[in-house]
Amino acid sequence: MPQELTLTDQNFKDEIKQGITLVDFWAPWCGPCQQQGPIIEELAKEVENAKVGKLNVDNNQITAQEFGVMSIPTLIIFKDGNPIETLVGVHQKEDLKKKIQDIAK
Amino acid sequence: MPETKNLIIIGSGPAGYTAGIYASRAQLKPILFTGEEPGGQLTWTTEVENYPGFPEGVQGPKLMQEFRKQAEKFGTEIIDAKVDKVDFRVRPFKVWSADKEYQSRAIIIATGASANWIGLPNETRLKGHGVSSCATCDGFFFKDKDVVVVGGGDVALEDANFLTKVTKSVKIIHRRDCLRGSEFLQKRARENKKISFVWNSEVVDVLGEKKVSGVRVKNNQTNEESDIACDGMFVAIGHHPNTEIFKGQIELEDKAGYIVVHDDTRTTVEGVFAAGDVADFKYRQAVTAAGMGCEAAIDVEKWLENYEKVIAKEADKKNC
């Protein structure tokens, strides 16, 4: 079963350059991120046409800054390296699946 | 047909989890729906300094995890989903979550309250780009920057104080010329050199193309408008009760939509109880919400003892 990727400033570009990747920008001190986390873990196991990853903004500030993340949790869906959709705040699994499906079309 | 439960608890703040602890210890085998913000408002805070039993303070998210563990320990079945629809006009009551139907003899509503926004189009557009309602989540992104906090209550003062730890300056914009927050928090804010106040002022627009560059405020005494340059706006202007799905099912008070309760935790539908911020616009504290959750669970336990009689009485009424 696929697990969510742990993304860092170092591996980010490589991991997202092909296909669809949903990235959860989070930090351990953020309450709503604790709610989003388990949803992301389940999503990673259930979607087949996309990768799912988490990036800790505290340790990886360069990437967070590059994509203008100023609020967490922020979820960005990338396609072939480009950000397609940015979602701010906690999102439910079914909504995220639908967004991924729409982009995969 | 889904199995009929004794009790469904809707909500997972101090009220919901405490109801879960008491109801599961009373062998009611309750199910609890956490909703979209498991743990509720306290998960948006850092240090909780006024919950009894924690003289050194306790982290809000941590406290709520402990509440949850305690409810689970005694057998509360916790479902991490939100309730989409209810029907309180039938017995047993019906509750729908993620297209699945549940039935229950009694209900405790503990859906709490959520933060208000000002309601400006540019506020919505710039959410996540400098506009935030969670200082503890997003303060980090405003290191050495200038920010404003909108509001004058406890949450605004707590947020402002928290933000001074990372930002260069914090302006508190308040529509009155005095603060509503507690004396202790007021004093702490006034003594903080990074905090200044903009009185009698309301934010009428949020400025900035891709991210916040400032806010436009209107002085409500002189009607003069002026711009304040800043990189972030944190909104802390109170809360509204989460009662949308109960409209038309139970009585809500006219002004803000809080659930009307009588005889402690009873709503206008017999068998439906309410606890915490969803029904309490006076105290709104974690500890009072927990207390009311306990009351609701005890009220449910007593009420269920007479369930058959209630059903028989209602059937009698229909027959004549």
Any idea of the CATH class of the largest domain in chain B? Alpha Beta
Identify the biggest protein-protein contact and residues per side: A-B, 24 and 29 residues
CATH topology of the largest domain in chain B: FAD/NAD(P)-binding domain
Radius of gyration of chain B: 22 Å
Structural class of chain A: alpha/beta
CATH architecture identity of the largest domain in chain B: 3-Layer(bba) Sandwich
What is the CATH architecture annotation of chain A?
3-Layer(aba) Sandwich
Helix fraction of chain A, binned, reads 25-40%
The percent range for strand residues of chain B is 25-35%
Low-confidence stretches of chain B: none
Q: Quote the average pLDDT of chain A.
A: 93
Contiguous low-pLDDT stretches of chain A (5 residues minimum) are: none
Please report the number of helical segments of chain B. Answer: 8
Task: Please give the number of β-strands of chain A.
Answer: 5
Sheet-strand content of chain A, in percent, reads: 25-35%
- The CATH topology annotation of chain A reads as Glutaredoxin
CATH class of chain A: Alpha Beta
How many domains is the backbone of chain A divided into? Answer: 1
Number of strands of chain B: 19
Following the backbone from N to C, one meets helices and strands of chain A in this order, namely: EHEHEHEEH
Strand arrangement in the largest pleated sheet of chain A: 1-3-2-4-5
